[in-house]
Amino acid sequence: MQREVMTVWNRCLSVIREIVPEQSFNTWFEPIVPLRLNGSVLTIQVPSEFFYEWLEENFVHALRKALDTAIGRDGQLEYSIIVDKGNEQNRPLTVNVPTTKTPQTAKPDNVNPDILKSPFVLKDLDSLTLDSYLNPTYTFDNYVEGDCNRLARQAGYAVAERPGVTSFNPLMIHGGVGLGKTHLVQAIGNYIKNNNQNKFVLYVTSEKFTNQFLNAIRTDGIRDFTAFYMQVDVLVIDDVQFLQKKEKTQEIFFHIFNHLHQSGKQIIMTSDRAPRALDGLEDRLLSRFKWGLSADLQTPDLETRIAIIQKKLQAEGIYIDDTVIEYLAHSVNTNVRELEGVIVSLMAQASLNRREIDLELAKHTLRNIVVDSEREITIDSVQEIVADFFTVTVADLKAKSRKRELVYPRQVAMYLAKEKTDLSLKSIGYHFGGRDHSTVIHAIQTISDLVTKNTETRASIEKLKALFK
């Protein structure tokens, strides 16, 4: 009996293989297990209810032709669906489907898009173009490459030129807040959209994906939801870490991911950390995230920050002196988003006050931004407090003088700048008259030793630290 059912099913597969594309055949027919043949009724086992619905919705003609050839016109198909009951033992759910659906080939003449659950119903109509939800301002042209993002940018460009063909599938871009993840993945999407008119690119945040899924459950639209995503050529999903602990959403995303990947479609994702650090995601999903390439984005170095400022100013048609650009690049070293925000604020201040952008305005703008946000300690505030404490001027701290009454306060200011700010040694040296980072190291070491051995120095440092609070 088992040999007979296998023979019949193999005949069905040989017919289906001639009709269905190879990728679809591998995705939807290879996982099927033939169970039994009872007269003219063939029973096959499929892994989910959605799986059988998809077969009936998309491959009914191929199945009908296969049954006609292998069994005859009386042939019928019965599905045995394995339903996951959690900790309970898997139980088969049998669905009797005669597979005699008639094709619907006519295009609708007048269609109201509001009544459609999936815009893909209208994908082939000239009257409607689907929205990719991409921001057209995010391009490779205005994405500044540096050591901090070179691998991610080059991998992204390779994917953009040959989506679904490179080994970078999926492509995972991960990094901290404001480092340009969204810009890069949308640049990939825009490049593909502009250079491959036949490919549909979709950008979606994981939060929106989850909300769409929950809405599909409420409205009994799971089939349309899944069908929509399974027809995407390039799926860009932002912030996948927010799928953590959402078991049902992860499950549907797992099936969509599998289908797209096996169909040669491109998947691009972002996350705030590497896949190995994503707790709360299923192991089977994490393992698939590691199939392609994971590229991280680091905090931009000084040279990259300068290039970002220059690019932003060039786009706005504004020129400012190099000393101001260097000051901004040295002073803001957290992320690209904050750096761009400072530039926008600086341009707004210049426009409102009808004045040129100079070093004084840059310092004033930075001070206001820092105070308004988190009252963080800046290099300027360190210099001002130390200069006032030792009755010297900020200019004295930056001067070349080697007088002891100036060297000691300067070293204290460098020591506190290293402790109280996130600036690099190179940036601290820049703010003290362009001194070398080795000078900063020497100053920090000198004051550290004095704090340990000298009670007067230790008391001075404690008083200064209290002034920052």
From TrEMBL:
<feature type="domain" description="AAA+ ATPase">
    <location>
        <begin position="167"/>
        <end position="297"/>
    </location>
</feature>
<comment type="subunit">
    <text>Oligomerizes as a right-handed, spiral filament on DNA at oriC.</text>
</comment>
<comment type="function">
    <text>Plays an essential role in the initiation and regulation of chromosomal replication. ATP-DnaA binds to the origin of replication (oriC) to initiate formation of the DNA replication initiation complex once per cell cycle. Binds the DnaA box (a 9 base pair repeat at the origin) and separates the double-stranded (ds)DNA. Forms a right-handed helical filament on oriC DNA; dsDNA binds to the exterior of the filament while single-stranded (ss)DNA is stabiized in the filament's interior.</text>
</comment>
<keyword id="KW-0238">DNA-binding</keyword>
<keyword id="KW-0963">Cytoplasm</keyword>
<dbReference type="InterPro" id="IPR001957">
    <property type="entry name" value="Chromosome_initiator_DnaA"/>
</dbReference>
<dbReference type="InterPro" id="IPR038454">
    <property type="entry name" value="DnaA_N_sf"/>
</dbReference>
<dbReference type="InterPro" id="IPR010921">
    <property type="entry name" value="Trp_repressor/repl_initiator"/>
</dbReference>
<dbReference type="InterPro" id="IPR020591">
    <property type="entry name" value="Chromosome_initiator_DnaA-like"/>
</dbReference>
<keyword id="KW-0235">DNA replication</keyword>
<keyword id="KW-0067">ATP-binding</keyword>
<feature type="binding site">
    <location>
        <position position="182"/>
    </location>
    <ligand>
        <name>ATP</name>
    </ligand>
</feature>
<dbReference type="InterPro" id="IPR027417">
    <property type="entry name" value="P-loop_NTPase"/>
</dbReference>
<feature type="binding site">
    <location>
        <position position="178"/>
    </location>
    <ligand>
        <name>ATP</name>
    </ligand>
</feature>
<dbReference type="InterPro" id="IPR013317">
    <property type="entry name" value="DnaA_dom"/>
</dbReference>
<dbReference type="Pfam" id="PF08299">
    <property type="entry name" value="Bac_DnaA_C"/>
</dbReference>
<feature type="region of interest" description="Domain IV, binds dsDNA">
    <location>
        <begin position="351"/>
        <end position="469"/>
    </location>
</feature>
<keyword id="KW-0547">Nucleotide-binding</keyword>
<dbReference type="InterPro" id="IPR013159">
    <property type="entry name" value="DnaA_C"/>
</dbReference>
<protein>
    <recommendedName>
        <fullName>Chromosomal replication initiator protein DnaA</fullName>
    </recommendedName>
</protein>
<comment type="similarity">
    <text>Belongs to the DnaA family.</text>
</comment>
<feature type="domain" description="Chromosomal replication initiator DnaA C-terminal">
    <location>
        <begin position="378"/>
        <end position="447"/>
    </location>
</feature>
<keyword id="KW-0446">Lipid-binding</keyword>
<feature type="binding site">
    <location>
        <position position="181"/>
    </location>
    <ligand>
        <name>ATP</name>
    </ligand>
</feature>
<dbReference type="InterPro" id="IPR018312">
    <property type="entry name" value="Chromosome_initiator_DnaA_CS"/>
</dbReference>
<feature type="binding site">
    <location>
        <position position="180"/>
    </location>
    <ligand>
        <name>ATP</name>
    </ligand>
</feature>
<dbReference type="InterPro" id="IPR024633">
    <property type="entry name" value="DnaA_N_dom"/>
</dbReference>
<feature type="region of interest" description="Domain I, interacts with DnaA modulators">
    <location>
        <begin position="1"/>
        <end position="100"/>
    </location>
</feature>
<dbReference type="Pfam" id="PF00308">
    <property type="entry name" value="Bac_DnaA"/>
</dbReference>
<dbReference type="InterPro" id="IPR003593">
    <property type="entry name" value="AAA+_ATPase"/>
</dbReference>
<dbReference type="Pfam" id="PF11638">
    <property type="entry name" value="DnaA_N"/>
</dbReference>
